[in-house]
Structures are given as structure tokens and as C-alpha cells.
Amino acid sequence: xxxxxxxxxxxxxxxxxxxxxxxxxxxxxxxxxxxxxxxxxxxxxxxxxxxxxxxxxxxxxxxxxxxxxxxxxxxxxxxxxxxxxxxxxxxxxxxxxxxxxxxxxxxxxxxxxxxxxxxxxxxxxxxxxxxxxxxxxxxxxxxxxxxxxxxxxxxxxxxxxxxxxxxxxxxxxxxxxxxxxxxxxxxxxxxxxxxxxxxxxxxxxxxxxxxxxxxxxxxxxxxxxxxxxxxxxxxxxxxxxxxxxx
Length: 246
Known about the structure:
Elements: H1 2-5, H2 55-59, H3 67-100, E1 106-112, E2 118-124, H4 131-137, H5 145-150, E3 155-157, H6 164-173, E4 186-188, H7 190-193, H8 206-222, H9 225-245
Parallel strand pairs: 3-4
Antiparallel strand pairs: 1-2
């Protein structure tokens, strides 16, 4: 089983304030900012420093009666459907990774979930080159995050899941950082489709984290089933654009 799942990644060392966390673009990010999908508003972000105390209490109106179980039922159905459709590619990618013998087939990555609770994110290890390029174009390595969705640790749409050390450091230096943790992290999200973290922020930066937070808090404030659908459609357009560009 160790060949398949390996061990959870080791805890990260504490970064400096000028270089914080793992800010690689999310699973549906393009190479840069220029290829934003149509009908996605670049300005739809909040300024964390200007939010008053108690602002989250005012925005909880999006949790209308019945919306929580309905959202959960939709998530489960969509996750099962995508996992079923992707099963052949998942199997092929797993066999390639198993034959490669350079590490576990499934990577187990520590992340922070809703209300700061830790969880293990699953990601399929995909080698570069050859079939690996095809698998990466299909984003097959990130499909296993749907297992986290089925377990209730993640949502289809939500803020990007952060590493524990990064989350702690960002909460120390960036106002309202913990406010993004009132919802479950997502496979995709409002910040991801806006390319809120650029390739220049891949090493991590306070500026990149704050920019991402502005979009995350906008999502928290306006979260609804309709908004989730809009983000999922924008994500689909990003994936299709990336496949054509590849």
C-alpha cells in the first residue's frame, strides 16, 4: 500500500513574511493572466483591510434553508459522475506512475480545511513527458480531490486549500485571512478562475496571498448555488482553453 499511497508529506518549515506558502496556481490555472475566460469580472474582489468586525454575520444570508443539503447532494452526484467518467484515465495514469517506481502513486498532502481543521488532500502523481503530458492537459492528477469532496473535506467550489504552515503565517500577517475558512476549500474557486495568483507568485508572497484572499472573501460574501454554477462553467472554459493552447 505504501507504493500506492506513500506517507503524508512532511510539515513545511516556517517561511519568512516576504516568501509565504505554496502559491502555485490552482488546478485549473493557465500560464498567465492574459487568457481569462469570457464574462469573468476582474474587479470582483473585496479589500480585507476595509471589512468591519462582524461582516461575516451579515453575509450568512446565503445559507438559506435547504441550500446546504442541496449543495451537498449536488456535490456528491457530480463528484461520483466525474470519477466514473475519469476512471479509465485514472487507471491508466496510476499504472504509468506505478511502473515509474519513483514514488507513491497517490500523493498525500497536508492541507487546512473549514474552521482550520487539517485534512489530507489526495493527488495522483503524474510524470512529465509522454503520456504524462496528456494526463496533465486533462488535469487528471487533480481529479482525486473529488475523493476529498465525497469525504466532506472539500467542496467543488471554494477557496484554495492551503498548507498548514502557510495558513498560520498568512493569518499572522494578513487581516481577515481566517475568514476564508468559514467555508470548505474547493477544487476550483473564484480566485482560481480570476488567476488571482500569478506565475510570479509561485514561490509564495504576501501580495499574492492578499490578492487571492480578496477574491475568496468576495466568494464567501456572495456564495450561492447560482454563483457556484457560474464558477464551474468558467473553470470548464479555462480547461478547454488550456487544452487548445497545449
